[in-house]
Amino acid sequence: MITADRILIVLGAVIIVLMTYPLFGFTGNPEQLIAGDCRIIYGAAGPKAEFQCRELLLQEHGLAAPSW
pLDDT tens digits, residue range 7-62? Predict the structure, then answer.
């Protein structure tokens, strides 16, 4: 028998999976994940803001040389 407890447990598990699953093209490549995150957050602000976001995150994760 399906109870409310079981429905809540399954719903919670589905929400956790969906929240941790990357939204844009997961290939195991951290640079692609960063690009997807920046596209979500700064996409409406324009390409310059999106590019700056990518550069900062790549530097923080040690994936790019500092530009200064």
Answer: 888 888 887 766 666 554 455 666 766 777 777 777 777 788 878 888 887 887 77
CB contact burial 36-56 (16+ within 10 A = b; e otherwise)? bbbeeebeeeeeeebeebbee
Written as six digits, the tokens of 48 are: 């310059």
| Residue pLDDT, tens place only, 14-25 | 877 666 665 544
Residue 22 resides in a domain? yes
The total domain count for the chain is 1
Residue 25 and residue 14 in contact, taking contact as beta carbons nearer than 8 Å: no
Residue 40 lies in a domain: yes
Is 66 inside a domain boundary? no
